[in-house]
Design goal:
The protein has 125 residues and is an alpha+beta fold. It is 16% helix and 34% strand. The longest helix has 14 residues.
Length: 125
């Protein structure tokens, strides 16, 4: 699934003129989708990546984007949390503690993250 940024919103949903993470007109590969208990949708995307550094992976409000590709990757699986949040992401990323370890740059998580991301990229080039 791919999306194109069409507007920039702050964390409260107000439109802003600039963002350190998103660029209007830029197309991004969606790596995960989540919906919180209030129905707020967000897309997990890599917004920055420099050689030798961990990718800047974050969750961004779906209202910032228009969908340009509806390909659903084969490695995505639905998850439901006790808080009534739900989403879809690679099954390997749903292992308890994986997300926290990835954000803390645990070196054991990067190969898993990258493998699953490559599956997604290969299926929707």
């Amino acid at each position: 699934m791919k999306v194109r940024c069409v507007r920039l919103l702050d964390h409260k949903g107000a439109e802003v003129l600039s963002s350190p993470w998103l660029t209007i007109g830029q197309t991004y590969q969606v790596l995960s989708i989540s919906i919180d208990a209030n129905g707020k949708r967000s897309f997990g995307i890599v917004t920055s990546e420099l050689p030798g550094e961990w990718p800047g992976f974050g969750s961004h409000q779906a209202e910032c984007f228009e969908i340009v590709s509806t390909v659903v990757p084969s490695n995505w699986r639905v998850w439901i949390h006790d808080s009534s949040a739900m989403g879809i992401s690679p099954a390997a990323w749903q292992v308890p503690g994986f997300a926290e370890a990835l954000f803390e740059h645990d070196p054991t998580t990067y190969p898993i993250f990258e493998h699953e991301r490559q599956v997604i990229l290969n299926e929707d080039p």
